[in-house]
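Suppose you are handed a protein chain with no further information: no name, no annotation, nothing but its sequence. What can you learn? This example shows the usual starting point.
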Amino acid sequence: MNIRGTPNQGLFGATLGFFIGFAAVALFGPTAAAFKDAVGLSPMMVGFLVAMPSLSGSLLRIPFAAWVDTVGGRKPFLVLLGISIVGMAGLTVLVTMYYPDRLTPGMTPLLFFLGLLVGCGIATFSVGIAQVSYWFPKAKQGTALGTYAGIGNLAPGIFSFLLPLALVNIGMGGSYLLWLVILVLGTFGYYIAGRNAPYFQAVHSGRSKQEAVEIGRQHGQEMFPQGKLKDSLVSSAKIWKTWTLVAIYFTTFGGFIALTSWLPTYWREFFGKEAVVAGSLTAAYSITASLMRVIGGRFADKVGGEVSTILSLAVMLAGAVGMFISRNFGLSLAAVIIMAIGMGVGNASVFKLVPQYVSQAVGGASGWVGGLGAFGGFTIPPILGAIVAAQGDTGYPGGFILFIGLGLIAIGLAYLLKRTHKVVSVTATPVNQPSQEVS
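A reasonable first move is to predict its three-dimensional structure. Written in structure tokens, the prediction is:
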């Protein structure tokens, strides 16, 4: 049988699709002030607006990851990106026809709904993780997945920088139209370049599952769908360490998404920066966190997942304290970059711990951690907005008390994991028998 594509081509296609879809994190951040003025949104409603794409982008990760095990990654990718195109097209029409004078408060629900649709592209993360994993042998998955996640995570930062520039030069309608064109072209690029792993190609050609497995092995594939994700989800949900990892990832990755969407508002409203400057500052934060995720994977391999997680959370916590006490632009910029470094390394460390602590149900645990952890991107911005509504301008730095609290809790949970891991590996493992937990 003729198999189309190679592992590197599979990685390229998945990375392209994720990069295009994940840009939706920055959909409303750079334009929040404009919508706030046009529709009359409160600070809390602004928080909900910038977070709407993250709601669909986090919750849809679990079911679409399960779909990959049935049909491969191409169809789930194209469905998610297709829905995102529909939302982006609707948003472009809405802005072109009604912004600013005819955009009324009654259109707020439609604005939020279109944000939900565009956010479906964010859910491509879990689809691409599975698609890349099936293409590569286990010995090369770390590098492949690090490349996939690291490059894909760059999209919000790049779009946070480009969108304000477009707003200045071609206006709101033209900016979203340009985004729509890029999204369509990127989706078409994935349609051309995206490839399912050999096993799924064989199944689609009519081969039996047993024949497909043999064909996959002949082409270097090592991982194949086993059982039902539902069983894996149930099994992993019964393990307390799964929920510990969810809470930590909620802090690091959910926090990363939340700040990427909230920081444009922070820089503009608290420090009075122009939209282009606010976008550039947000891009500096987002891109730093994304690049540190790649480095963080290697760091975790050297020092261990628990130590890497604790250190990264301590760095994030230090940055959050700086943001909380700062009324100075230079200090705030330094503090948020420190947060980016901690969050980026932490995002990589958590997924190193998933197979270590939930080895019997890695797929299900990854679904819970990736899906519910990313949910922080939806829940955190409205809370930050509520703090601003309650405290006025001082609420912008004051809101970072939330990250201080989350950081302290996450460090405690990571330390608990480390202590439990030591106890298991030293006292619970019989002499002369290999530990099943330290694998």
